[in-house]
């Protein structure tokens, strides 16, 4: 059996009684006793997730922006100021999603630290823009191989940053609790960050952090990149500030309520962004020949052969990955399914053949569960936004 990687917070998880499990080759906390309690804490107050398993990749070189215009389906030309972030997909030539990721235009200089390396300083100096990618843990090896292969023609330096930890603090009170840990000069600046914007700061304990107003729960909050030796002190400070630890189980139910894709389950390299409800991440801007563009142009003109829909089941039971979905246009399957703690019902994302399906009606779409065809309602997702059910989700 392959040894699992551990985050800088592993001992803290053990001490807190976490149930640990394999996630993308990492030994990560699934829950700390009650996944539902952790889910609700994030929806109503603030919770924190150890996301140190995510892969951080720094890109540096004179042609880095040109390289990313070629590599990504969304356009990095939208990133005009340091600190701006962009969600996008990285595609293969067939238009399939190799991975979904966030790309940051990084500041050219960062806050100096007396005790620790900066969380945003490029690994080497040089001309050109400095960008950072945050990609999924489970796709690390194939992502690094693909990025490295494509980068060679552009002479871009690709550096995996294994010297970081990462903590996501999410919930309606998350920003307030994080800001309370920063030195006074940084509170106002970080407090004014817009969504999908990041900046450098230092905590009152002198820890240099890179703070992004992003997340994967449908709630407001921050994702914090921190040097490894500062990860445990930051976690402890957040815990003392009343931020409850939450495991990857709650992270999954939260992201599904928020209608967010999970790579490997809701999409993969055989699925295009149009088939994953990610058309908004595709930029068909003039003159940019990114990988997979020709396939996406054809799908946009003719329509993608499959579509992603949201489902709610009003009967008792749980919708699960792999269950057959029956529609008037043919069969599909459940991608992600779970019991929603916020709604008190089973919800799911499903991929089905393209075709018009009425929203809200029960019986036009059915899910096969243990030999029975159970009627479900088709609804728009996200199912929950800012802690509240969206219109039409509750019958």
In short:
With 395 residues, the protein is α+β, with helices and mostly antiparallel strands.
Question: Could you please describe the fold and organization of this structure?
Answer:
It contains nine helices and 21 strands. It has 395 residues and is an alpha+beta fold. It has two domains: 1-303, Gyrase A, domain 2; 305-395, Elongation Factor Tu (Ef-tu), domain 3 (Beta Barrel). The strands form five sheets. It has a six-stranded mixed sheet with strand order 10-11-12-9-3-13, sandwiched between helices. Strands 14-17-16-15-18-19 form a six-stranded antiparallel β-barrel. Strand 11 (208-212) and strand 12 (221-227) form a beta hairpin. Mean pLDDT is 94; it is low at 109-117.
Q: Which percent range fits the helix content?
A: 10-25%
Write down the CATH topology of the largest domain: Gyrase A, domain 2
Helices and strands: which structural class?
alpha+beta
- The helix/strand order is HEEHEEHEEEHEEHHEEEHEHHEEEEEEEE
Unreliable residue stretches: 109-117
Q: How does CATH name the architecture of the largest domain?
A: 2-Layer Sandwich
Largest sheet: 6 strands, mixed
Rg estimate, integer Å: 21 Å
User: What distance lies between the first and last C-alpha atoms, to the nearest angstrom?
Assistant: 47 Å
Average pLDDT score: 94
Percent in strands: 25-35%
Give the tally of structural domains.
2
Separate helix tally: 9
The largest sheet has its strands arranged as: 10-11-12-9-3-13
């Amino acid at each position: 059996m392959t040894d699992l990687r551990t985050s800088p917070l592993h001992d803290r998880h053990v001490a807190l009684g976490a149930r640990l499990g394999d996630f993308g080759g990492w030994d990560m906390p699934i829950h700390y006793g009650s996944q539902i309690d952790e889910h609700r804490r994030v929806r109503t107050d603030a919770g924190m997730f150890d996301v140190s398993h995510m892969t951080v990749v720094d890109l540096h070189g004179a042609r880095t922006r040109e390289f990313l215009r070629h590599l990504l389906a969304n356009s990095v030309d939208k990133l005009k100021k340091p600190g701006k972030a962009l969600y996008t997909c990285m595609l293969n030539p067939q238009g399939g999603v190799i991975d979904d990721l966030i790309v940051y235009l990084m500041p050219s200089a960062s806050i100096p630290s007396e005790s620790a390396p900066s969380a945003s300083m490029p690994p080497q100096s040089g001309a050109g823009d400095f960008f950072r990618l945050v990609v999924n843990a489970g796709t690390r090896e194939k992502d690094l191989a693909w990025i490295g292969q494509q980068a060679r023609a552009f002479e871009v330096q690709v550096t995996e940053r294994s010297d970081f930890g990462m903590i996501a603090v999410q919930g309606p009170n998350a920003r307030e609790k994080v800001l309370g840990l920063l030195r006074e000069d940084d509170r106002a600046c970080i407090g004014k960050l817009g969504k999908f914007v990041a900046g450098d700061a230092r905590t009152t304990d002198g820890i240099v952090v890179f703070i992004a107003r992003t997340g994967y729960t449908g709630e407001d909050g921050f994702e914090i990149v921190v040097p490894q030796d500062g990860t445990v002190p930051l976690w402890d400070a957040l815990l003392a500030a009343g931020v409850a630890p939450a495991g990857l189980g709650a992270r999954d139910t939260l992201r599904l309520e928020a209608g967010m894709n999970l790579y490997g389950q809701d999409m993969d390299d055989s699925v295009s962004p149009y088939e994953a409800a990610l058309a908004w991440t595709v930029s068909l801007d003039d003159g940019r020949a990114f990988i997979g563009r020709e396939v996406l142009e054809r799908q946009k003109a003719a329509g993608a052969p499959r579509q992603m829909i949201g489902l709610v089941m009003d009967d008792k039971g749980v919708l699960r990955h792999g269950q057959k979905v029956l529609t008037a246009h043919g069969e599909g399957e459940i991608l992600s399914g779970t019991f929603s703690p916020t709604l008190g019902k089973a919800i799911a994302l499903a991929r089905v053949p393209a075709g018009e399906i009425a929203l809200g009606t029960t019986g036009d779409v059915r899910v096969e569960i243990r030999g029975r065809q159970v009627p479900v309602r088709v609804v728009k997702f996200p199912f929950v936004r800012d802690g509240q059910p969206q219109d039409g989700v509750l019958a």
